């Protein structure tokens, strides 16, 4: 599996959303946009049920760590969630699979990680960036770090236990850290 990166340019973030909507589906663009705003692992993102969302918060147990996460939803995430709920009031999952011809005979299930990964991979060719299902989480972490320079805050958001892991994860290199020391004079 190729390593994927954070998307550092805001215009590229918007372009990816547009390309996912145009070339795949609005649902794939919604996965991208909600994923950017929640910074969840893809397994947790796709497993979100509407019942997990109450009073403007998402409550879930992370599959990888078993930790409970209580995430306040920002206005953009809430707007997308409400639109999806309105368009598909019978859905159980936020990103419920409904394209399969046999889906009416099976119990409801979310989109697959594979389907999302394939859509992102095709868009990555167009934008010439290595994208994958972790790109949303990495992008959120990168932009939070750039706006705050507070690695502890990014670690907490991503629920990491090590600064080094977090810095590598969001693509911050030692050269960038060194540059911050040079540029910030007090």
UniProtKB/TrEMBL annotation:
InterPro entries, per the entry: DNA_brk_join_enz (IPR011010), Integrase-like_cat_sf (IPR013762), Integrase_catalytic (IPR002104), Tyrosine_recombinase_XerCD (IPR050090)
Signal sequence range: none
Entry keywords, A to Z: DNA integration, DNA recombination
PROSITE patterns documented for this protein: TYR_RECOMBINASE
Pfam family, one: Phage_integrase
Limits of the Tyr recombinase domain: 2-182
GO biological process terms on file: DNA integration; DNA recombination
Gene Ontology MF terms: DNA binding
PANTHER family, sorted: INTEGRASE_RECOMBINASE YOEC-RELATED, PHAGE INTEGRASE-RELATED
The name this protein goes by in its record: Site-specific integrase
Organism: Ferrimonas aestuarii
